């Protein structure tokens, strides 16, 4: 919202009533994916049975709201938080039962710097189940094929060459002063996100990509 012209910021705030629930997640994007997942009957988080490990990729989506939601939903991280806040009155058996099951593994690719993942800020999802990767150039640029190939290779090695069950992507960036050209400026990123899905996703699985308005012929 920081890039929105001052005249429309009040409208954006009214539209984003979902922000009222942000106390649960650290990052706003987590609520966006939570809403989509609910509307689609768990399309993203129920891609595999609860007893299995859900492998997912999160690209161009720092600081990590999508991953925070997926890890919370699959790993029962809310129980971990309550256990950590406990004063110690519960016995060890009760505490063991609240330790989350790490039945999800996330792989991230995003730009370093201000757009980087901030796993240490996850409130709801265990960052131990998330691995950020930045490619040979160590810049996380998805528009470079060598970074994409390296990311796909990491996922192949980590999943016994099966690939991920879910890929989520955002790709928003600062377009201050060029708001009306956002979708034009973003088309290369969208293309590379789709390419990433093609080389990392298992057959018949799900890709969720956040976009700006898709109203021009450029897209």
From TrEMBL:
GO terms for biological process: 7-methylguanosine mRNA capping; methylation; mRNA modification. The keyword Nucleus applies. Gene3D superfamilies: 3.40.50.12760. One of its GO terms (molecular function) is methyltransferase cap1 activity. Signal peptide: none annotated. It is found in: Nucleus. It catalyses: a 5'-end (N(7)-methyl 5'-triphosphoguanosine)-ribonucleoside in mRNA + S-adenosyl-L-methionine = a 5'-end (N(7)-methyl 5'-triphosphoguanosine)-(2'-O-methyl-ribonucleoside) in mRNA + S-adenosyl-L-homocysteine + H(+). Residues 24-201 form the RrmJ-type SAM-dependent 2'-O-MTase domain. GO terms for cellular component: cytoplasm; nucleus. It holds the Pfam family FtsJ. S-adenosyl-L-methionine-dependent methyltransferase that mediates RNA cap1 2'-O-ribose methylation to the 5'-cap structure of RNAs. Methylates the ribose of the first nucleotide of a m(7)GpppG-capped mRNA to produce m(7)GpppNmp (cap1). PANTHER family: CAP-SPECIFIC MRNA (NUCLEOSIDE-2'-O-)-METHYLTRANSFERASE 1, CAP-SPECIFIC MRNA (NUCLEOSIDE-2'-O-)-METHYLTRANSFERASE 1-RELATED. This is Cap-specific mRNA (nucleoside-2'-O-)-methyltransferase 1.
């Amino acid at each position: 919202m920081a890039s929105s012209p001052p005249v429309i910021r009040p409208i954006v705030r009214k539209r984003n009533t979902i922000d009222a629930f942000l106390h649960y997640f650290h990052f706003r994007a987590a609520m966006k994916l939570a809403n989509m997942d609910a509307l689609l009957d768990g399309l993203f988080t129920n891609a595999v049975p609860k007893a299995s490990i859900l492998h997912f990729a999160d690209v161009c989506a720092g600081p990590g709201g999508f991953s925070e939601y997926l890890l919370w939903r699959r790993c029962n991280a809310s129980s971990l938080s309550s256990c950590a806040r406990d004063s110690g009155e519960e016995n060890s058996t009760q505490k063991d039962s609240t330790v989350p099951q790490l039945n999800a593994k996330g792989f991230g690719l995003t730009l370093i710097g201000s757009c980087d993942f901030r796993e240490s800020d996850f409130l709801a999802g265990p960052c131990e189940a998330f691995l950020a990767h930045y490619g040979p150039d160590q810049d996380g640029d998805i528009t470079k094929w060598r970074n994409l190939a390296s990311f796909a290779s990491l996922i192949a090695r980590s999943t016994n060459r099966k690939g991920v069950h879910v890929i989520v992507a955002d790709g928003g960036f600062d377009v201050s002063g060029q708001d009306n050209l956002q979708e034009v400026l973003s088309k290369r990123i969208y293309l590379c996100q789709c390419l990433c899905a093609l080389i990392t996703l298992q057959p018949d699985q799900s890709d969720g990509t956040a976009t700006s308005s898709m109203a021009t012929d450029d897209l």
